[in-house]
Specification:
Blueprint: H1 9-17, E1 28-31, E2 34-37, H2 43-59, E3 65-69, E4 84-88, E5 102-109, H3 113-117, H4 119-126, E6 131-136, E7 141-149, E8 152-160, E9 164-165, E10 175-176, H5 177-180
Parallel strand pairs: 5-6
Antiparallel strand pairs: 1-2, 3-4, 4-5, 6-7, 7-8, 9-10
Length: about 180
């Protein structure tokens, strides 16, 4: 008989501080108290993250936004590591940013669309993250979720390759999807 070992977010943070995961050669994140191995990123996933990172930094040069890449956020018994996160301006050396700090959260889904639209979406909505984007690489579209409510979002819009979109937090930041979805 086997049992899943659950750990608290505080235990997870202490393990990280003590170097418990150094040298294991795997990317992990804490989801609902369970350590989950993350899929290794392939070239397409990495390319999209690079593109979105450049766009994010260029679009937020005014200093009102902190852009983070694959860094964890506080979500009760979870520490997800979104691909790109826009945070309220400030320093976060003494704590993980929480849902109240997040302006925009972006996940790139090459092979994880069900997970990003399911379990991850529920975590982000429960943290009241105002705007959540999922880049669906396979379908060449972008899912935009706004108005968090419980474990879901009231509003879901799909933008396609010919669309241009802007996050609500920085309406002047225009992302042209035809430039994102290459070849």
């Amino acid at each position: 008989m086997s049992t899943t070992l659950r750990i608290s977010s505080e235990e997870y943070d202490r393990m990280i501080e003590r170097g418990a995961f150094v040298g294991i050669g795997k990317r992990i994140e804490l989801i609902h108290g369970e350590l989950r191995e993350m899929n290794p990123a392939g070239p397409v996933h990495e390319d999209y993250i690079d593109y979105l990172t450049r766009w994010s930094v260029e679009s937020t040069t005014s200093g009102g936004v902190v852009v983070r890449v694959q860094s964890s956020i506080f979500a009760d018994d979870s520490r997800p590591e979104p691909d790109v996160t826009w945070l309220k301006a400030g320093r976060y050396a003494d704590r993980h940013p929480s849902g109240a700090d997040v302006l925009l959260l972006i996940e790139v889904a090459d092979s994880t669309i069900a997970y990003d639209r399911g379990e991850k979406l529920a975590i982000y909505a429960a943290q009241a993250i105002a705007e959540y984007w999922i880049i669906d690489v396979q379908q060449r579209c972008l899912h935009i979720y706004t108005q968090p409510h419980g474990n879901g979002y009231k509003d879901h819009h799909v933008a396609n390759k010919n669309d241009s979109i802007s996050p609500r937090c920085v309406p002047t930041a225009e992302l042209k999807l035809e430039s994102l979805f290459i070849a």
